[in-house]
Design a protein that fits this description.
about 40% helix, two-stranded antiparallel sheet, about 300 residues
């Protein structure tokens, strides 16, 4: 079972727990990247560097979910992740804030065969036991987040049922105001016939859940390190589909992954349905620029 992350009620308490009673912050540097949180590199008086994410105090559950997701991946002993140190809240003079502390990852030059190694490690993660995460079902031990939006992980015995009811249906519901009657009819048809397009996997896999290039970084050992997960137990090909949505990974990644963990026949025909979930999520977060891709995929399976 993965480790429980410590939670503290002040920044000072968190620093003391991490680095001792004399710990203090000697340097703060803003780190770019990400749409949701503010990120910082903190240098402690000892010279140690830690990574801090901060947001409004009410967003503390977001950091707790991220910590749990990273801990779940780390527990498989397959792909590298940052070490989670703690989460917490700070009262502040007005509204306060929430925070997440992790070890700071110093990137190095990618190792030879970086993408091949990552593909092998990801395949191993997908083959790891999920009994601690979802009792061998599809879902997760608690809900979490996909981007800034809640992701429902109530377990199901059926992957197709899970993907329909926990992934597509909530997103379609929240985006309903974007759809005309014709598209709404197509959406109903797609959901009613989803079992004609998706298949059940041989076994559930622990998924990163938001696996695009921005959530994979090169660690100090020159190998891939996963960040910002939206984990759950599902069909491994959903992770692979997500890697292809925004530009894709190099060909050697896919060649190696398929050589060590072959995809079930017909993956290419299912890929767009998996990515429909992420496009709907972007539609709900960022607006109408994502409506045409959503409409196109729905029509692809219903015309």
């Amino acid at each position: 079972m993965f480790n429980e992350t410590p939670v503290y009620t002040s920044l000072a308490q968190a620093l003391t727990s991490i680095a001792g009673n004399d710990a203090s912050i000697s340097g703060t540097e803003r780190v770019s990247g990400g749409d949701i949180n503010k990120s910082y590199s903190l240098t402690l008086s000892s010279g140690r560097k830690i990574f801090m994410k901060a947001n409004e105090k009410d967003n503390a559950p977001f950091f707790a979910a991220e910590a749990l997701g990273i801990s779940a991946i780390a527990s498989t002993s397959t792909v590298s992740t940052p070490a989670i140190l703690c989460t917490g809240t700070e009262k502040g003079e007005q509204v306060g804030y929430s925070f997440l502390f992790m070890d700071f990852i110093e990137s190095a030059a990618p190792a030879t065969n970086y993408w091949e190694i990552f593909a092998e490690e990801l395949a191993s993660m997908h083959k790891a036991s999920v009994k601690d995460f979802s009792n061998k079902k599809f879902g997760f031990i608690q809900n979490n987040f996909i981007g800034s939006r809640k992701q429902i992980n109530t377990p199901s015995d059926s992957w197709i049922e899970f993907f329909r009811d926990r992934r597509l249906v909530p997103q379609f519901k929240d985006a309903d105001h974007y759809f005309d009657d014709g598209l709404k009819n197509k959406i109903t048809k797609l959901l009613d016939h989803l079992d004609e397009f998706l298949i059940e996997p041989e076994s559930p896999s622990l998924l990163h859940g938001d696996l695009w290039a921005g959530n994979v970084m090169c660690g100090p050992d020159g190998k891939a390190c996963l960040i910002d997960p939206a984990v759950y137990s599902g069909h491994a090909e959903a992770d692979i589909a997500m890697t292809e949505l925004f530009g894709g990974f190099p060909a050697e990644f896919y060649e190696t992954y398929k050589s060590v963990s072959p995809l079930q026949n017909g993956y290419e025909e299912r890929r767009d349905i998996y990515n429909l979930y992420h496009l709907l999520n972007h539609l709900n977060m960022f607006g109408a620029n994502y409506l045409n891709p959503v409409r196109s995929i729905v029509s692809e399976y219903t015309d």
